[in-house]
Amino acid sequence: MENNNHGHLETSKADKAVWLMKCPTLVSRSFKTQEEPSRPVAKVILSIDPLLSNDDNELPQFTMELLGPDCGNAPKSYSMDISKDFIPMSVFSESPQGKLAVEGKILNKFDMRPHDENIENYGKLCRERTNKYMTKSRQTQFINNDTGSHMRPMPGMMITSVISDRRRQPAKASEMKRTRRDRGEMEEIMFKLFERQSNWTLRQLVQETDQPEVCFFIHLPAYCMDALFFLSFVLSLSHFILISQR
């Protein structure tokens, strides 16, 4: 800065009161696109309640109304909330020639928000903006290789696609997480299965009982012992009945 301006800083406007305003992007864009720079872009309305005494800590109410042309659902009126947590600052500017100057001292800091009267239109504007960004715009792309060879399926492409489709298939209900049954319920199910038929494979038993494989194989010896005990009891009982009949 000292090399460009020889250490000179214009301070004639250092004591001028300036407002720092945080405004939406829509408002700042409308300020920058004014055709006539000298034309007013907005007006600020100060609302004062005459019934309030000077001792009240109520802050004054500021409202800004844009003077530019209507922009669809864009709000025209904004509430200006005064920030209480404010650190004194100054505003600096730099001319195209590189000259630095102090434009003033910031007196108040404001946060702009759409006025309650325009909140419905502002909601419509937000929805329109969201839909605009979510909608994918069509793009035209030029293909250098116009022979069409890249559009024909190459050998092995169909097999790969079939394999990938098989991998994407969701798991069946039988392959989902199974609920573990208690021993008494499992014994009853096993007896009913062997009453239906005498020969079963282990895979068929797992599917019929709908149990986790690890849990089923851990308790399988106990089921077999119970079945053998029951079978021996039945044989002994039948032998006793035959002897009694004789």
Automatic annotation (TrEMBL):
Any one GO CC term of this protein is: transcription factor TFIIF complex
Keyword line: DNA-binding, Membrane, Nucleus, Transcription, Transcription regulation, Transmembrane, Transmembrane helix
Q: Does the keyword Nucleus apply?
A: yes
Q: Which domain of life is it from?
A: Eukaryota
Secretion signal: which residues? Answer: none
- Its primary localisation, in coarse terms, equals nucleus
Q: Which GO terms describe its biological process?
A: transcription initiation at RNA polymerase II promoter
Q: Where is the TFIIF beta subunit HTH domain?
A: 180-214
Q: Mind listing the GO molecular function terms for this protein? A: DNA binding
Could you tell me where this protein is found in the cell? Nucleus
Bilayer-crossing regions: 220-243
What CDD domains does the annotation carry? TFIIF_beta
| PANTHER family the record matches | GENERAL TRANSCRIPTION FACTOR IIF SUBUNIT 2, TRANSCRIPTION INITIATION FACTOR IIF, BETA SUBUNIT
What is stated as this protein's family in its record?
Answer: Belongs to the TFIIF beta subunit family.
**Name used for this protein in its record:** TFIIF beta subunit HTH domain-containing protein
- Native species of this protein? Rubroshorea leprosula
